[in-house]
Amino acid sequence: MLIINGGGLETWGTRISDDIANSSVRVVVAGNGLMNKGSYKGGVFIPDSHVWLDPILAIEQVKKIRDGFIEIDPSNMEIFQNNAEILLNELSDLNERYQVELNSCKSRDMITSHSAFIYLADRYRLNQISIAGQSPDEEPSIQRIAEIIELVKKKNIRYIFFESLLDPRLSEVIADEIGASILPLDPLEGLSENDLMAGKNYFTQMEMNLNNLKIALRCTN
Questions:
Q1: Which of 17, 100, 184, 195 is the most exposed place for a label (fewest CB within 10 A)?
Q2: Structural element, H or E, at residue 159
Q3: What residue ranges define each of the domains in the chain, with the CATH number in brackets?
Q4: CA distances from 122 to 81, 90, 125, 200 (A)
C-alpha cells in the first residue's frame, strides 16, 4: 500500500500512481475530498494540501488509511481498527484542547511565513495573514512586506510566526521593524531523523503550535 496526501504535495504522486495503476499496490490518497481551500493561479485552482493541521480533517485521513490497511490485509482488521481508534481519540482530544484554549484569545490574527495554516485557522476561528503565498518558495513583494508591516502596527501584533524548515529572515525583518518577537509555528511538512529520535511527532509539534498560538494571541486559558 502506498499512502500519499495528495493535492500536489508529493510532486511525484500523480506519476507514480499512474505507473502502479495496474499493479496490486493499493494507493490511498489521504487528503482526497478534504482539500477545499487554496488559491487560483492562471485561472486554475491550486488546493492547499495542509489538511493535517486541522485535527478534525486529520481524523478523516486516519480513517482512509485504516480502511486501506483493512482492504489489503483483512485478516488483521481488528488490529487496524483498535490502533486507529486510539489515534482517533487522541486527535479528538487534541481538537478539544485547541477549541477550549483558543476560545478566549484577545487577538484572532496570526502572521505566518506562508499560507500553510488556512485549515487550522478556519477550524478555530483565527485569521491567517501570510507574508508569502501558498508555496514556501514564493517570495513576497516589497509592497506585500510593507502592507504586512502596516497591518501589524495597526493591529498592535507583538509576535510573528516563522517555520522551522524555512529561512526566518522575512519574519525577522517585520518583527525588527515593529519591535516584535518571533515564534515558531510548525506546518509539520517534515520531521528529520534527529527530530524523531528526540521524541518529536505530530502531537508534540501540534502542542507546541498551540502553546505558541496562545502566547501570540494573548489567550487567557
A1: 100
A2: strand 159-162
A3: 2-100 (3.40.50.1980), 105-216 (3.40.50.1980)
A4: 29, 21, 5, 25
pLDDT digits (tens, 9 = 90+) for 169-203: 778 888 888 888 999 999 998 788 898 999 999 99
- Asked if 107 and 11 count as a contact pair (C-beta separation under 8 A), the reply is no
170 vs 136: CA distance, rounded Å: 12
**Residue-averaged pLDDT of the chain:** 89
- Scan for cell 510593507, then name that residue: 146
- Say if residues 159 and 180 touch (Cβ distance below 8 Å): yes
Distance between CA 162 and CA 184 in Å, rounded?
Answer: 5
What's this model's pTM, rounded to 2 decimal places?
0.89
Q: Name the 3-class secondary structure at 191.
A: coil
Question: What are 181's three cell numbers?
Answer: 518577537
Letter string b/e over residues 62-88, b meaning 16 or more CB atoms within 10 A of that residue's CB: bebbbebbbeeeeeeeeebeeebeebb
* Percent of all residues in the chain with a pLDDT value above 90, rounded to a whole number: 58
DSSP letter (8 states) at residue 219: B
3-class secondary structure, 134: coil
